[in-house]
Design goal:
This protein has a single domain, classed as Rossmann fold (3-Layer(aba) Sandwich), CATH 3.40.50. It has a 6-stranded parallel sheet with strand order 3-2-1-4-5-6. Helix 1 links the parallel strand 1 and strand 2. It is built from 7 helices and 6 strands. It has 206 residues and is of the alpha/beta class.
């Protein structure tokens, strides 16, 4: 796999999401894919306006989510963070992001998605163009199965790009719920994120 921005020799795997907030599940699974698929860097890309989320009432401000994501990986060398989508005042379409990244020097854009999202790719923004612009990698939990024949032909190539990740029962929804209930979230997300949420009083019940 090759994704080599100008002036760099490392293979980069992009991982976009609302990261509301980012947590250990995101980081552990992304690291597992990078190690198993041969990527040297994971570029986390927080979205500003996630086009696939119908309920944004619990969505923290994009600036907060960007800063939490940066704080979560500050002491690592594998992860980096891009503000590319947060700085755009428009829905965070992956196609547009990939095109902008190529304008910035990426020869290829490799993008990590969860197995649950693979079946919805045909409904993403300009899906046929998306499959041309982006090399998708699918992360799947042990035992996960999918009827690939149900996908349109151009999307069945993803069947050969599935990487198994650890089974981790953790979600951002769970973290937000615990914060709203006044319960601790230590060990669910990096300490810097725990502190950020406390300091800025995010996700508290109103």
């Amino acid at each position: 796999m090759t994704d080599t921005p100008a002036g760099e020799s490392m293979a980069t795997l992009c991982f976009g999401g609302s990261f509301n907030p980012i947590h250990h599940g995101h980081l552990i699974c992304a690291r597992a894919v990078a190690e198993r698929a041969g990527y040297d860097r994971v570029l986390l890309i927080p979205s500003a306006q996630p086009p696939h989320k119908s309920d944004v009432s619990q969505l923290a401000d994009a600036h907060h989510r960007l800063l939490m994501t940066e704080a979560s990986v500050r002491s690592t060398t594998l992860f980096d963070v891009s503000p590319l989508e947060v700085t755009r005042n428009e829905p965070s379409y992956t196609l547009i992001t990939a095109q902008l990244m190529k304008q910035q020097g990426f020869r290829e854009v490799h993008w990590l998605i969860g197995a649950d999202m693979a079946q919805y790719l045909p409904h993403w923004h300009e899906p046929e163009a998306l499959m041309t612009e982006v090399h998708f990698i699918v992360m799947a939990r042990p035992g996960w199965t999918m009827d690939w024949s149900a996908l349109p032909e151009p999307f069945r190539v993803l069947r050969d790009r599935v990487v198994e990740v650890p089974q981790i029962e953790l979600s951002a929804t769970q973290i937000r719920r615990r914060v709203a209930e006044g319960k601790p979230i230590d060990f669910l997300t990096p300490p810097a994120v725990v502190e950020y949420i406390r300091e800025h009083k995010l996700y508290q019940s109103r």
